[in-house]
Amino acid sequence: MFKRETNKEKDQRVAEQAYFFNMFDTMWGEILPEETQYSLAQELETLERERIINALALASGNQTKAAQSLDVGRTALIAKMKKYKLSY
Fold first, then answer.
1. What is the pTM of this model?
2. How far apart are the first and last CA of the chain?
3. CA–CA separation, 69 vs 63, rounded Å?
4. Angle between helices 74-83 and 63-70 in degrees, nearest 10
5. 88 domain residue, yes or no
6. Is the same domain home to 54 and 76?
7. Of 2, 47, 48, 83, which sits most exposed with the smallest number of CB within 10 A?
8. Which residue has the higher pLDDT, 78 or 28?
9. How far is 86 from 27, CA to CA, in rounded Å?
10. What is the pLDDT of residues 41-51, one digit of tens each?
């Protein structure tokens, strides 16, 4: 059965959360300064672009074979090639 939290327990929980959030902010600031921006989307695009280039090179420019090796459809590969301005 669910035990209802007292006001004292709630205040303690909120104080603990604030402490850990503050500690996280302090540690994160040391690891990654505010002026440094991390973009997961940019990293994924870079990885996707590299994989497409490698697949096309291994397939000697054959888009169908490259698409098969990447487990995507040929038209999806062509769309991604246009997105990244790749030609082969």
1. 0.59
2. 64
3. 10
4. 100
5. no
6. yes
7. 2
8. 78
9. 40
10. 889 999 999 99
Question: Which carries the bigger pLDDT value, residue 9 or residue 58?
Answer: 58
User: Quick check: helix, strand or coil at residue 38?
Assistant: coil
Q: Which residues constitute the domain of residue 46?
A: 40-83
The total number of structural domains in the chain stands at: 2
Q: For 73-84, how does the pLDDT look when each residue is reduced to its tens digit (9 = 90+)?
A: 999 999 999 999
Produce one character per residue of 41-79: b if its CB has 16 or more CB atoms within 10 Å, e if not: eeeeeeeebeebeebbeebeeebeebbebbebeeeebee
Cβ 69 vs Cβ 54: under 8 Å: no
Residue 77, both tokens: 């590969």
- Domain presence at residue 27: yes
